[in-house]
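Thanks for the sequence, V.! I ran Stringent starvation protein B right away. Repeating your input here for the record:
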Amino acid sequence: MLRAIYEWCTDSGYTPYLAVKVDSRTTVPMEYVKKGEIVLNISFGATSGLKMDNDAVRFHARFGGISREIYVPVDNVMAIYANENGQGMAFEPVLGNDDPHGQPTDSPASADAPPPPAPAATGPTLSSVPTGTTEQRESPPSGDDEPPKKGGRPTLTRIK
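Predicted structure:
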């Protein structure tokens, strides 16, 4: 699915972004990680040597002018989407696999971790594109009926 959405983005003239849950198996610049997550521009112009296979996404990219090698296990991908319109697909990252030797487990990282939300029947879509960080992801409902404030940074919202 990652390759298909990546190709759709590039064929449509959109910029593909990858939202990633960071753990010990990922190789990303840690200074850009916010709340255990990072958003990566994986467009042709932003990457070098992009390779997507069934196990991982690998490429080189510049951060602050310095070329860095990026390695993201497919299990850690939370979403791939077009930056311009937010269309794409979200995934539940596989939790509890901090083993650097990479054998998947079915148990959560810790017993006190909240269970993941039930998957939607038709798969979630993305709206309100985040830019550069994922720290605003899925804020809880406020309870009042105030309309959202204009301006500020956009958020990623799951629609079921």
